[in-house]
Amino acid sequence: MAPFNAAYRQTLLAGHLTLGLMTPLARPHGAMADPALELRLARLADTHGFAALWTRDVPVMVPQGEETAVLDEPFVWLTALAAATQRIALGTAAAVLPLRHPLHVAKAALSLNRLSNDRFILGLGSGDREAEFAIFQQDIALRGDVFRERWNLVRSALSPDAAERATLHEATGGHDLMAPPDARIGMLVVGSARQSLQWTAAHADGWATYHRDEARQQGRIGLWQTALRERAGGEAKPFVQSLQLDLLDDADAPAEPIELGLRAGRHALVDYLDRMEDAGVAHVLLNLTRGSRRPALDVVDELGREVLPRLQGHARAPIR
User: Fold this and answer.
1) Integer Cα distance of 301 and 284 in angstroms
2) For the chain, which domains are there?
3) Residue 315 confidence (pLDDT)
4) Given this model, what pLDDT does residue 320 score?
5) Pairing of strands 63-64, 187-190
6) Hey, which residues does 67 pair with through a beta bridge?
7) Least crowded by CB within 10 Å, which of 36, 80, 255, 308?
8) Which N-terminal residues, if any, form the signal peptide (predicted)?
9) What is the structure's pLDDT at 178?
10) Rounded-to-integer distance, Cα 46 and Cα 88, Å
11) pTM given for the model
């Protein structure tokens, strides 16, 4: 198998837990992000040595609970972040594969990886908003089957190995979408994607899931590792988790749970991240809560200055 690209190695094969940030970082409730501020935040994260910037895919502004997501097109958004940064990896967490043509997804991923100098990771999910599936005239009940079928075609298109591109060539009559990448673009399953852990272990380059209390998360990590032994021949593949974070001004404030995450001072946050690393987490994707009273610039700066250097084994692994 061909080696992975620089983004995957830096973010998921660093040999220690790495931190990423979900963007936009400073999006007001129910409003579009300020591009100038987001590019400034991206450059700050890049300077501090965060491993990755991520974004979500919300095709239509369909309310979910009390919130209506207002997000730019993810591949265009990440291209803007790529132009503003130099080393930090860029990823989707996740693009909704059943609502996108797989050849368009593959072409966008190949282009973004090339334009960013090998800095892209493709996270894919199955989607869960019934209204979106109806708008796109897709059957939500079939999204698991559609996900598997389209995954195989995207995987084939993103591979530098000629033999692996056979599925792509069968679909296109022998044509490539563009020049194949020099290295393998990592593909993550985000959430369950309506697949078994055994399928994900066999086909994905890693699994990204949401925050749970520590005992439950350790159980999920154990199930993931068991699935890897059974379906991936024992090959190590990274476990990634998201974390809603409300970082408090008081560095000594203890951690307390919030929905899908923590409210804590930086010392408790570091302790938590150390425990997650010990449990087998390779990367934590921080999602800054919009309920925080602190400006996103202050939070990202504190995380970069005070948290990254204190993580176990933290060392910058620059993209070359």
Assistant:
1) 17
2) 6-310 (3.20.20.30)
3) 47
4) 35
5) unpaired
6) 64
7) 36
8) none
9) 96
10) 5
11) 0.95
